[in-house]
Amino acid sequence: MALAIVLVALMLVGALAGLAVSAARRDRHEATIGLRSVRALGAAEAGLSSALAGWPASVAATLAPGSFVRLDPVAVTATDSFTLSIARLAGELYLVRSEGRAGAARRELAQVVRLHSPALLPRSALGALGPVRLDSARLAGGDSTPAGWGVWCEAPGPAVAGLRLPDAMSLTTAPGCAGLGCVTGAPPLATDTTLAARRAEFLAAFDSAAARANRVVSGDVAPASLTDSAGRCAIGVATNWGEPDSSGSACAGWLPVVLAPGDLRITGGRGQGVLLVRGDLELAGGAEFVGSVVVLGTLRMAASGGRIMGGALAFGGADIAAGAIVRSACAAARTGAAAAPPRRLPGGWAELD
């Protein structure tokens, strides 16, 4: 009897020990899963922070409303990583999704962001705070869409002023623009006394955009898009300012913020983005630029002409012998977004199932 009781007790103790070991293993497994889930959430949060700190402007700029792109995974540690997906909702509104992985664990977060472009330009094809002289020029305030940009642009909006000045007396026209026939818009010429009062606002926007410059140039340049041997846009080449004439080009999404610390002369070629000049700017040889142009000195277009599509602001005035400045709200907004940091919309992030 005693031996039987001892054997039964040993069996019970063994069973209880087995249950304890099994429970410990289960708890350890659940703890491991929980830890991996926490690490996956941390990786997803790191992805959102990365998207906001280093906004992929050249990627986002290629997205049409309703489309998205999935970027390559980025390692956080040897075992953890995140993968970003960016979708353009409408205008400058984007949805960023970050999928964090830690081993087999997966967590996904989403955040809606908006690009806040600095107010670089007044509502006109050309705005000037100094004297303006027009000859064989064309200033068009009607909203236009650059060729090949229909995938990114909504329908054109209403026309704005072709030329906006604080004082109409600062305007001089040569025979090529007799009767102000070279200026169109609604109205063709707008006298805006608030321009001078907004000088500090425009300068602050200039400095904000200049702080995000990824090109610093000077002297004479002739920009042209360029691809590398793998067919990718060669953004490291100083004279590559993107390709504004083709949505299918590898450089269609390259919208650089170009800063000239002094005078700049563009002698032919074409580019896109935001062009900021602290001195004088001259366009010659049929040079073309699509986007926002801000000149703290004088804007000049030589007899060989040039073309700006988007909008321009010249603090020191303008002397347009030939060429054209055509208003494009889409071009100004899309390229201006390249100089805009993304901001979270209120509400923070949300976790997806």
Could you give a quick summary of the protein structure above?
This protein is α/β, with parallel strands linked by helices. It is built from five helices and 23 strands.
Report the helical percentage. Answer: 10-25%
Count of all domains: 2
> What is the CA-CA span between the terminal residues?
60 Å
The whole-angstrom Rg is 29 Å
Element order: H for helix, E for strand: HHEEEEEEEEEEEHHEEEEEEEEEEHEE
Outline type = elongated
Question: What features would you describe in this structure?
Answer:
The chain is α/β, with parallel strands linked by helices. The protein has two domains: 78 residues; 216 residues, no CATH class. Helices cover 23% and strands 36% of the residues. The chain is built from five helices and 23 strands. The strands form two sheets. It has a 16-stranded parallel beta sheet that branches. Strands 1, 2, 3, 4, 5, 22 and 23 form a seven-stranded antiparallel beta sheet that branches. A hairpin with a 4-residue loop joins strand 2 and strand 3. The longest helix has 52 residues.
